[in-house]
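## Example record

The block below lists the input lines for one assembly entry, exactly as stored, with component labels intact.
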Amino acid sequence: EVKLSESGGGLVQPGDSLRLSCVASGFTFPDFSMSWVRQAPGRGLEWISVISGSALSTSYADAMKGRFTISRDNFQSTLYLQIDSLRVEDTAVYYCAKHIYAGSEALEYWGLGTLVTVSS
Amino acid sequence: EVVMTQSPATLSVSPGERATLSCRASPGVSTFLAWYQQKPGQSPRLLIHSASTRATGIPPRFSGSGSGAEFTLTISSLQSEDFGVYYCQQYNHWPLKFGQGTKVEIK
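Predicted structure tokens for the full assembly:
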């Protein structure tokens, strides 16, 4: 059974940094690209970033370039998202998602998400 | 950057009736399109990928069609558990983009 479990969210102040984690199980982690997607309260889904299975390739949404960094540890089957200089508008549930197969960017499995609240 | 537009914003359908949701992509995205269902308090669930292929475990009442710029998700006979918000997502161009969602209400 595929399982994705995010952690690292919480209440932070504007300007803080945060690293989110996503522990994966139930599949061969290095074989699949992984993405982060966020959802602000009451809003739609916003794709943040993707990382290839080998970690050699990454891509970001334009609005996320510069403050967001995606990475992965294939030995620990863990995906990360570093967010720097947090802003109030970064308040959202952050999901990690497994891509359905190599070469496809459809997101087959999602974690339950971790809530990041940015407030002074 | 691809713009994804979903319509209608809200759809009220009686159980047993057909529901038809639309998604438009500009520019076109071939068949690199997915549909997701999200219920309140839950994570999104993949329903359809490659425009018309049902994901594992998705019942046959869900079907997808279209290519290029116009896509449709059809729920042939709406069940009470099908309420929620439905999103389309293109993956033909970077960055990946979602539509704004269609809320399906049970009439």
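The mean pLDDT of chain A is 97. Chain A touches chain B at residues 35, 37, 44-47, 50, 59-62, 95, 100, 104-113 (CB under 8 Å).
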